[in-house]
Amino acid sequence: MIGSVRIPKRSFAVSSVAALTLGLLAACSLGPDQPRTVAEEFAAALGSGDVEAAAALTDDPDAAADTLSAAFDGLGATEHSFTVTAAEETGDDAGTFSLDASWTFGEGTFGEGTFGEGTSGEGTSGEGQTWDYSTSGTAVRVGDEWRVDFDPAVLIPGMTAGQSVRYTPTLGPAPEILSSSGAPLMQEQVVTVVSIDGTADTAALANLLAPIAPTITAQSLTESVAAAQGAPVTAITLRAEDHAPIAAALSAMTGVTSSEQTRLLAVDRDLASPVFGDLTTLWQERQDESAGWAVQLVQPDGTATTIAGQDGTPAEDIATTLDLDLQYAAESALADLPQQAAIVAIAPSTGEVLAVAQNASADALGPIALTGLYPPGSTFKTVTTSAALQSGEVTPDTVLPCPGTENIEGRQIPNDDNFDLGSVPLHTAFARSCNTTMGRLAVGLGPDALTDAALQFGLGIDYVTPGLTTVTGSVPPAETPAARVESAIGQGTVTASPFGMALVAASIADGTTPSPTIVRGATASADRTAPPVPPEVTADLRAMMRETVTAGTATDLADIPGVLGKTGTAETGSGSAHGWFVGITDDLAFAVFVAEGDSSAPAVQAAGRFLR
Question: How far apart are CA 534 and CA 511, in angstroms?
């Protein structure tokens, strides 16, 4: 039956189809059932998306072509079909017919909802959003030919001349992103985008914006306008509370325009965690999944009436594990550091990510707290010591040499400032961070010993965590004794992110590696699993980390009750060194990283500010 055609979406621009049109017109003058014939040919042309052929079958081809083309463009359907369900002559020169129409839009699964007489929004799983309806029309004799008496309502129910039709997605109330206490963390807010062109007085605008954005200058604005080569450029995006006091002054400026938009923003402008990017992506996914759709008739003045569609389901709020008090403390602890710096805090018992912070210098490089890879230096001695203890060759009380410097496998290994402890128990060598002791221990380990020990603490495991993109680090097998010496002190090919070292600390605190989580109820999946560290080994490590604070390299934190830790300094190869500290206190494990801090001191001091 030629009146039912379903095709994929295609361009509906009017094209020349003279041969088809002539054939259809000729057919219109033949046969006994002329209303049905012309109606089916009209349906077939619509089904193929050929608006010129369909328009030529009407009594007003020009108006029909304009209306049909605009309707196909406005609906933008992926599929459509038209079927003649009834037709009859009502006289020698007239007849009526009925059409069933179906339009499919986009992707998704929707239920059935009715929006007005004869229209529905019925969806089919996997086939997108479908609008099914019936219309009726009139066929008339024009001279020797039969034509469809064109009325826009033949195509779209209720449409009249001058109206247009469009498909549009619809959104319900925006979800919120909540902190661990349930307080709003991020919300959709109205902002004002301020744009300028070459006629703007950049000096006056910079002066107006100075209290809000001191970094914006007349020179920076002028350079932006020049680079745009005459096109308008965005000068600043203002929150509502910033825009209101200067709105009148902005509107009075030549070459300055303002427009409102909605954006997802942190409730507090002072919060700027690198996790917000992934949480925003998750928020958008939930918005998209909950979206509805509508078909609207649009009046010439732009007002619209919905005639079909389906309401979306309310998007669920995103409850995160972020602790606002800890987040503020972490951001404050880093704010005054000139170097790139980051803090990541995790609850060992649950894997919940409690705080992720980095300063403005780090923000310029991206989310280094979560994905930046650096040599971890002596914080990696937690892994080296675990591997040595698990080998059975040493215990915490085994007395080992700690010379100020030693040539081990061709690599001259010094202690910090060449300090020399002589021979001391392993726990003392750990607390005082003896490079020479750790390097010598690693020589006797197998090529995979440090790799395997790192995996037991989550370092080197790839986690897929809803709402959080992370990289833990990499600890390749050390095939030679010389390579193991380098790896033992967190140098060579060993790398870790602040997130990765926070996970190491959490694993030591809990005894097993927790599955990281930032959205409640959505735990991570891992690309591999590792056997747990024997409980006695993690207990020994905790005791050594406590000694590091009470009598080792982190005594600046000794006033904080019960804190455990390990300091780290990692050479960068460019004459500078990164500073690290990993710590544990109660159900809190964290890592502090300060790029090119030259020692662990800035990281230890930041840890103190964070905890205090």
Answer: 8
**pLDDT band with cut points at 50, 70 and 90 for residue 139:** very high
The whole-angstrom separation of Cα 140 and Cα 160 is 19
Long-range contact pairs involving 579-583 (C-beta distance under 8 Å, separation at least 24)? 579/603, 579/604, 580/376, 580/377, 580/378, 580/379, 580/501, 581/379, 581/554, 581/606, 581/607, 582/379, 582/382, 582/501, 582/502, 582/504, 582/505, 583/505, 583/557, 583/607, 583/611
Contact yes or no for 422/431 (Cβ under 8 A): no
Residue 144 — very low, low, confident or very high, per pLDDT cuts 50/70/90?
confident
What CATH number should be reported for the domain whose range is 7-170?
Answer: 3.10.450.50
Average of per-residue pLDDT across 527-549: 97
Specify the DSSP class assigned to residue 319.
Answer: E
- Pairwise CA distance, residues 12 & 31, whole Å: 30
**Phi (first) and psi of residue 576, to 5 degrees:** -110, 180
The confidence band for 106, taking pLDDT boundaries of 50, 70 and 90, is confident
Q: Which of 3-12, 113-122, 381-390 has the highest mean pLDDT?
A: 381-390
Coil, strand or helix at 511: coil
Q: What are phi and psi of 538, to 5 degrees?
A: -65, -35
Q: Where, residue-wise, is CATH 3.10.450.50 in the chain?
A: 7-170
**Axis crossing angle, helix 435-443 with helix 481-488, rounded to the nearest 10:** 140
* Close Cβ partners of 560 (under 8 Å, ≥ 6 residues apart): 549, 585, 608, 611, 612
- Evaluate if residue 88 carries a pLDDT over 90: yes
Q: What's the token pair of residue 469?
A: 């993109």
Distance of CA 122 to the CA centre of its chain: 31
Label residue 143 exposed, middle or buried (CB < 10 Å: 0-12, 13-18, 19+).
Answer: exposed
DSSP secondary structure letters along 322-388:
--HHHHHHHHHHHTT-SS-EEEEEE-TTT-BEEEEEE-HHHHTT--HHHH--B--GGGGHHHHHHHH
pLDDT of residue 349 exceeding 70: yes
Long-range Cβ pairs for the range 155-161 (8 Å, 24+)? 155/46, 155/67, 155/68, 155/71, 155/101, 156/71, 156/297, 156/307, 157/116, 157/117, 157/118, 157/119, 157/133, 157/307, 158/116, 158/297, 158/307, 159/71, 159/297, 161/63, 161/67
User: What tokens were used for 535?
Assistant: 């409980």
Predicted pLDDT of residue 107 = 58
Residues of the chain with CATH 3.40.710.10: 324-611
515, 351 Cβ separation under 8 angstroms: yes
pLDDT in tens, 552-579: 999 999 999 999 999 999 998 788 999 9
Kindly tell me the burial class for residue 365, based on how many C-beta atoms sit within 10 Å of its own C-beta (0-12, 13-18, 19 or more): exposed
* 324-611 CATH fold: Beta-lactamase (3.40.710)
| Angle in degrees, CA 7, 8, 13, rounded to 5 | 90
What's the order of all strands across the beta sheet hosting 341-346?
353-358, 341-346, 588-594, 577-585, 564-571
Record the tokens describing residue 158, joined without a space. 């209720």
Among candidate residues 458, 459, 499, the one with its CA nearest the CA of residue 372: 499
pLDDT tens, position by position, 412-449:
999 999 999 999 999 999 999 999 999 999 999 999 99
Radius of gyration of the chain (CA): 35
